[in-house]
Amino acid sequence: MTLDPVLARIDADLNQATARLFELLRIPSISTDPAYKAHCDAAADWLVADLQSIGFDATKRPTPGHPMVVGHTGGNGPHVLFYGHYDVQPVDPLELWDNDPFDPQIEDTPKGKVIRGRGTADDKGQLMTFVEACRAWKAVHGTLPANISMFFEGEEESGSPSLTPFMEENRAELTADIALISDTSLYDENTPSIMTQLRGLLGEGLTITGPNRDLHSGSYGGVAMNPARVLARIIASLHDDDGRITVPGFYDGVPELSNELAAAWDDLKFDHEKFLGEVGLSDPAGEKGRRPLEMIWSRPTCEVNGMWSGYTGDGFKTVLPSKASAKISFRLVGTQDPHKIRKAFRKMVEDMLPPDCTVSWSDHGASAASVMTTTHPAFAQARKALSDEWPNAAAFTGGGGSIPIAGHFKQILDMDTMLIGFGKDDDGLHSPNEKFDLSSFHKGIRSWARILHAMTS
Amino acid sequence: MTLDPVLARIDADLNQATARLFELLRIPSISTDPAYKAHCDAAADWLVADLQSIGFDATKRPTPGHPMVVGHTGGNGPHVLFYGHYDVQPVDPLELWDNDPFDPQIEDTPKGKVIRGRGTADDKGQLMTFVEACRAWKAVHGTLPANISMFFEGEEESGSPSLTPFMEENRAELTADIALISDTSLYDENTPSIMTQLRGLLGEGLTITGPNRDLHSGSYGGVAMNPARVLARIIASLHDDDGRITVPGFYDGVPELSNELAAAWDDLKFDHEKFLGEVGLSDPAGEKGRRPLEMIWSRPTCEVNGMWSGYTGDGFKTVLPSKASAKISFRLVGTQDPHKIRKAFRKMVEDMLPPDCTVSWSDHGASAASVMTTTHPAFAQARKALSDEWPNAAAFTGGGGSIPIAGHFKQILDMDTMLIGFGKDDDGLHSPNEKFDLSSFHKGIRSWARILHAMTS
């Protein structure tokens, strides 16, 4: 089957493709907040209907959390499974958005047209690049070039509690020759990327309790333990002066970068001054003596994602708080064991507690890092196809974010994954005013059409 | 004029006095939150009307913030100025209250009847003890035994920004022979107290900014500065391992306790295990080597009253926050200079900032400690009158809280102050389920009637 008419169809259909994406973006499918449960369900229904319209036998599949969407075409050729997620991050602080996050708009910017709204880049806009490539292929040739399965989840932004049980229960149905995922970024605007290593993620919530109620800092200040001070001291102790993480055993399984990969990454000439400059920073703040790209792609981290205690409103309140809480996450690399690190972290915190303080914990997910097998032939085929669509040849890159599903595909389904995404660094993932470039959407659809062609011709 | 019929009248009128107090308690006069501005105004109006009903020429006096209430009776005898505040603390976390904080109730408890609601002890219930004593005196004798002025403010819980300008503009009108304040506690349920030293208060708000927007901790974690970590490190550094505060020059002007006062306080046999045990604590957490009572009454402190950064809602969000904020207060003693300490604290924080971080500040008030001149004859008169009302003799005590007005009375009006209050340690000031014992209210009114009698007979 020929590629050129498919590409032409994609170009001609772009406005309609954008309109379809807007329908999905308007559904506020925030998975972490129970108030949006019905909206997550509605997003799944929308995807089922859309896949059915292209000929997939798509169904909504219940889980204890938000539903999965699974669809198949059957047919000849290699069997590929495309994965995406229809849930999105919360939108707070809402006042920092210039427009309603769930009323997407096309905006003209100095760098070109962008699609603005929550979920545009992460991940609805990217998910739809693959769906639209299939639609165009079907419209032109009446059939798809491969045996394609779709697998969408609605809990990616909230720890994916239902994902591995569902994969284990549906192992045969979900296993294909290779998995494809579009939830990552271009290396730069001219250089597509196939991500070959991703960091894992360990999420922890903790609350330290001192007094059994909030106290007046005049009556009790000086004699009563303040849990906010205890929490600050614990957080401050998590890094040493060289930026290394102090949890015992944390660096077990952290590999040094190979000379080959170090050289390839140096060739990318990563401009950390520009990367940091765009967010108002200048100084690489990670471990001393590491390349900035290493800090993001291949070194583990410990970050405070949230922290709160006492009075946080306007004005002042001289309270000595009863509780202090934090949400802390670790990005993991190599063969670091998230469960071992969770245990060591909790023990370290518990050992630091002064008399009269207790700690309670919340488990916010644990996934190891993923390292892909780049010798699978699909990697070379996709690299060639991407290089045909974009100005520069595709690069094998690392990723700082965590897409635990790639690890699950390997561990549960023994399936390799290609991570090919079209986002940009300034998309504002998880932030106010998230966007996805219209050109990313358009060329993303074209890229998948080319990759499907390369894998089957 | 005789005292006994006044005391009898107070006993007979207790239900009506409580009903009047409830009217005032039902007005949610939270001064720190602009949303309650009209309610603060309504509380001032209520007091003006109530004072007028007892014969005061009371008026509401505008300020740039919440209004003052001032009223005079004129007449012979010593001139006393009674001060109180009609504003209250915020009520969050609201879910920890058993009842509406602004729907006061009389509750039976194992320790006796209590008045439950925001402001019952701090300070509406205490303020009304003096007003009710005047009302009873007027009802029995048709006149008051002294030349009495009333002075109520509505910004005590929000840093009193209008207070000193108002005092300076109305110096002659507000100057009396002595000031009386009821905003403190009994030493214990049987022992009334006249507080002769109070800690000062310096309130600071700070926000540390790193990246110019919230970032994805996958894309940026490891290379971008996290301001929550910076704030934690700053807060953790404010105390050394012995519990001493590390701000340079902080201890300038902190006196050692005199042998005389140390002995008098030791005589009080302060039961710190019981005091801390009631709030779920056991270990005096202040400077090593200090008496627990010293930690509260005569040592300076630094406390975190609020702290927040990043995502604090349900679930988890892998944000690398742009900002981290805290509200920090210092309790001051002796001749510590709040302005000098503010400057040293800000410099210390600014010196600790890593590259790419900035800090912005909010000034939440600054007052020095107060030490009273206990040789004024009113102190002996009041001590005798209180000892007649309560089982034990009245004690001269210290106070951990900050009532800056006592310092202002001395500095601006050259007037001594007697701090005589009827609260208890378990009143829950600034906390959910604040209460004031009905016996404190009743015996408080009787105590003021006795003190007015002792000062004028």
From TrEMBL, chains A, B:
Gene Ontology biological process terms in this record: proteolysis
InterPro entries: Cyt/Met_Dipeptidase, Peptidase_M20, Peptidase_M20_dimer
Gene Ontology molecular function terms on file: metal ion binding; peptidase activity
Domain Peptidase M20 dimerisation span(s) in chain numbering: 205-356
SUPFAM superfamilies on file: Zn-dependent exopeptidases (SSF53187)
Domain of life per record: Bacteria
Listed PANTHER family: BETA-ALA-HIS DIPEPTIDASE (PTHR43270), SUCCINYL-DIAMINOPIMELATE DESUCCINYLASE (PTHR43270:SF12)
This protein's name: M20/M25/M40 family metallo-hydrolase
